[in-house]
Amino acid sequence: MKELILTLKEDIIVPVEMDAVIPEKIENMTLDEIKNIELPQGNKKVLLKDLFDVELNEDADVSRIIIKNSTIKLKRIGEKMTTGEIIVEGDAGMYVGCEMKGGKIIVNGNADSWAGQNMKGGELIIKGNAKDYVGSAYRGDWRGMSGGKIIVEGNVGNEIGEYMRGGVIHVKGNAGLMAGIHQEGGIIIIEGDVDARVGGEMKKGAIVVYGKVEELLPSFKFEGVVEDPVIKLSKKDEGTPIKGKFYKFSGDYVYNKPKGQLYISVESNPDLI
Amino acid sequence: MEYIIKNGIVYDPLNGINGEKMDICVKDGKIVEDVSSGAKVIDARGKVVMPGGIDSHTHVAGPKVNIGRMFRPEDSKKEIYAKKGLRTGTGFSVPSTYKTGYQYSEMGYTTVIEAAMPPLIARHVHEEFMETPQVDKAAMPLFGNNWFVFEYLKEGDLKKCAAYVAWLLRAARGFAIKIVNPGGTEAWGWGKNVHSIDDPVPYFDITPREIVRGLAEVNEMLGLPHSIHVHPNNLGHPGNWETTLATMDCVKGIKAKPRYGERETVYYNTHTQFHSYGGTSWKDFESKGVEIAEYVNKHDHLVIDVGQVTLDETTTMTADGPMEYDLHMTNGLKWANCDVELETGSGVVPFIYSPKGPVYAVQWAIGLDLFLNTDTDKVLLTTDHPNAGPFTRYPRVIAWLMSKKYRDEWLYNKVHKWAIQRSHVADNDKEYDLYEIAKVTRANQAKVLGLSKEKGHLGVGADADIAIYDINPEEKDGKKIEKAFRYASYVLKKGEVVVKDGEVVKEIYGDTIYVDVRVDESLEQEIMKDLREKFTRYYSINLDNYPVQDAYANSWKVIKIDATDIN
Ligand SMILES: [Zn+2]
């Protein structure tokens, strides 16, 4: 299998779209074809070789693309990928892992907004922070992320998991406003603190917060304190165990009969109830 | 510029030409007897030649379309139009203006009528028309929930109502009388609706029957080119076929007296599919398409367009405000709605017609029941774009009509079995031929709009709006039919080649057609008094700022009518 190493030659000002460079496409291309891939840059097109030093190893263990010196100006990295790996050395621009169906992306830096938008499968790991709308729906759509796993080791911005229907978003740092807004499935786990309105208008799915919750919406109903619960999202779901003592809420009661579950750490929020 | 289109197989129902091999000559934007030897030759051997397509009912410009575009960015993402040398555009069900013009043109369409113009916001419609290339355009102002109309008809003053209609058509640069859920949209302003055609409108105490019949009489007094264009009450509700029949029947006896054009009918029932529902709920919902078709076949005073459901994800939009609220409550998707002062209202809701949904499958079948059972002189092809499906699906609808095999492929393999069980589509063997396709997409449309002098045919003197399709008249392969009608070989607009091999090769800005009726001066003076009073008391804008100015078209085509004999 092929391993492609792209090293950005110099900083760019106008953003470049990288969605044409994904592992399954590279597998069927020669070095020369790869070098001549056209990438949209603003309202122009540039060739891959003009921006990057290109290196190709023909016998890698997995189909892989490594982007070195990456910056926030490289957008749509790994969009729609179904297999293989992309390793980003540096930051990733908007829409990293957007609509991805399979494979794995590791960003060894920060990610801009809309990481993993409408993700369907695969794994997206961001070692630094990510901005807003991690695992969200496309603007205007009501059908968001449906599968796969996003792990952000740092902090995330506002409205993560918007209209999420399936999969997992795991944030090791803090989250901004309205995490899990309109959520309809899947699990969001936040190890750090969350800002206000967590789970706003959620219908289904679960949100777990280990840190401090800034403010809880009044439209959630307190269901009691639970210890080491197993979160089940459907009858068939074998369950996701989580450790700790949590206040359990159901909501959001702006809807009739909502099935959303919200778990908030008792330890970090002694005065919540 | 001169052209001679050689050896095409011509379908021109208005001139009775059914698949004859002949040459068509074009000079200076018109069809002529012959051309000089210098004329450019278009070789149409083995190809089908038809007049340019006409869409008598579509929603392509104005405030509600624009709300659809704005509140559905996800629809914009679905389809991107970026052909070399042309303006880019986006949107599958609510395309941007340029994309709309280009795509109609690619399909061989040369004239489109926007079916619902809120008069107060007419400028918005005309502004978008100016940015919609490739086609001639016209818009129908909404009259069915207008306070002036209610009051004049209530007083039984048809003359004043006629003078008001004439004034508004001129002020809004409108083309015909559109009626949507007569009285119901006004009732929606009070949180209500009207259901039967004899339910009084709250506050105004006038019934839909009085509104429809009154406006039909006014239409013929003025002698407008098109008849009244009606979307009856109860759209989309099980059991509504009876309301539809009652509405169709309530104008019987009124005689067509167009002062322009050759229309013989006084009533046009639009998107009839949405009005041909049997049953009492969605559980016992069934097609009454055949029953409606039978009524249409037996009576000479009306025609229908179908509003064929194409089983896509689309955006519904209508001046039927309460109906859109119902829809939003049914599917839970986002909803926009608005009130237009004394005139009308509207709503917008996305909609997904899934082939596997039982109700949607029946809706699809009802459209086909109408197509397959109505006399082909009395039915028109529309999808009520974008309500039942985007206009870019017309070629697919044509394929369903021309090929029983293709229709059955959908009926037996793709759609829910309710379509077989609750309609008559499965037992119907009718297949449209190209002559009939030319009727439902051209000839009938031109005639009912009152534009058959210049459009919808290929006789000498007609506008040289011509479509050439690469299709064998015997073709039964649905996919091939669809492709041929989606991308015309050639399209001529005003005598110039604008599409070649399915690609737009020339941008041309069509006319905006409107009707200017002159009425007796003293009668006009009288209604101006009423207008001044109402504008001062109720309107948010000044009467003098209301009429659309001359600058709002690339070029106007004015249909002038003298109705000064009304006094
Ligand atoms: Zn309509």
Q: Could you explain the architecture of this structure?
A:
The complex is a heterodimer of chains A (273) and B (567). Chain A is mainly beta and 273 residues long. Chain A has 2 domains: 1-112, no CATH class; 127-273. Chain A is built from 3 helices and 19 strands. Chain A has helices at residues 23-27, 31-35, 48-51; strands at 3-8, 16-17, 38-41, 44-47, 52-57, 64-70, 74-75, 85-90, 104-107, 123-126, 149-152, 168-171, 184-190, 204-209, 221-227, 230-231, 240-241, 245-251, 260-265. In chain A, the strands form 4 sheets. Chain A has a 13-stranded mixed beta sheet with strand order 5-1-6-8-9-10-11-12-13-14-19-18-15. Chain A starts with a strand and ends in an 8-residue tail after the last strand. By secondary structure, chain B is α/β, with parallel strands linked by helices. Chain B has a domain at 1-52 and 67-138 and 457-518: Urease, subunit C, domain 1, CATH 2.30.40. Chain B is 33% helix and 23% strand. Chain B is built from 18 helices and 26 strands. In chain B, a hairpin with a 2-residue loop joins strand 23 (496-500) and strand 24. The longest helix of chain B is centred in the last third of the chain and has 17 residues, at 521-537. The A-B interface holds A 138-142 and B 71-75, 77, 333-334. Residues 57, 59, 115, 270-271, 318, 384, 387 of chain B line the site of zinc ion.
Spell out the blueprint of helices and strands.
The complex is a heterodimer of chains A (273) and B (567).
Chain A: E1 3-8, E2 16-17, H1 23-27, H2 31-35, E3 38-41, E4 44-47, H3 48-51, E5 52-57, E6 64-70, E7 74-75, E8 85-90, E9 104-107, E10 123-126, E11 149-152, E12 168-171, E13 184-190, E14 204-209, E15 221-227, E16 230-231, E17 240-241, E18 245-251, E19 260-265
Chain B: E1 2-12, E2 17-27, E3 30-32, E4 40-43, E5 48-51, E6 53-58, H1 63-71, H2 73-78, E7 80-81, E8 89-90, H3 97-106, E9 109-117, H4 122-130, E10 136-141, H5 147-154, H6 158-172, E11 178-180, H7 184-188, H8 208-222, E12 228-231, H9 241-249, E13 267-269, E14 277-278, E15 286-287, H10 289-298, E16 302-305, E17 313-318, H11 321-331, E18 336-340, E19 344-352, H12 358-373, E20 379-380, H13 394-402, H14 404-414, H15 418-421, H16 434-449, E21 466-469, H17 478-486, E22 490-493, E23 496-500, E24 503-504, E25 512-519, H18 521-537, E26 556-563
Helix pairs in contact in B: 5-6, 5-8, 6-8, 6-18, 10-12, 13-14, 13-17
The complex binds zinc ion.
Zinc ion (ZN) binds next to loops of chain B.
